[in-house]
Specification:
alpha+beta, 4-stranded antiparallel sheet, 154 residues
Length: 154
């Protein structure tokens, strides 16, 4: 009986690794557009290199205003599908939410720190906007010192 199970399994989903994806058109990037309204879409994926992601992003862009600037973000650290699933189960037992919002709700759960796949291999992405009045090297040194202090406490 157990051997039948192996034929119904999809090896693509045996991996515990998932990623959070966020598409966003921000007010900050679209000040040049009249009557612009910020838009966002979030979901999870098991394959961060899937051509489907490009197609979904192109669809997101097409649904925006002409000349709108949109961004796509994918989590640097993989998330755990198993941890996210358990957290979703608890949420569904404890709270009510609109079932039509399950995809962004699931992305929100997966993005939480406790659902990271392997916290010992966590990567940090430093994103900044360049400014003339800031010393970048000084800020990076300060960031590195603060981060190392926090990491040694964990």
């Amino acid at each position: 009986m157990g051997s039948l199970n192996k034929y119904s399994r999809n090896n693509k989903f045996d991996n515990d690794e998932i990623y959070v994806v966020l598409f966003v058109s921000r007010n900050k990037d679209n000040k040049h557009l009249e009557n612009f309204k910020e838009r966002r879409m979030s979901f999870i994926t098991h394959d961060k290199n899937s051509p489907e992601l490009t197609a979904r992003f192109e669809h997101f862009v097409r649904n925006g205003q002409y000349n709108e600037f949109s961004r796509a973000y994918i989590s640097v650290n993989p998330r755990s599908s198993k941890k996210t699933f358990k957290a979703l189960q608890h949420l569904m037992l404890d709270q009510e939410f609109h079932i039509g919002l399950i995809e962004p709700k699931l992305a929100s759960i997966a993005a939480k720190h406790e659902n990271i796949l392997d916290s010992k291999k966590r990567k940090v992405l430093f994103d900044f906007d360049k400014s003339e009045d800031h010393d970048l090297i000084l800020h990076l040194d300060q960031f590195e010192k603060k981060t190392l202090k926090k990491l040694t406490k964990i």
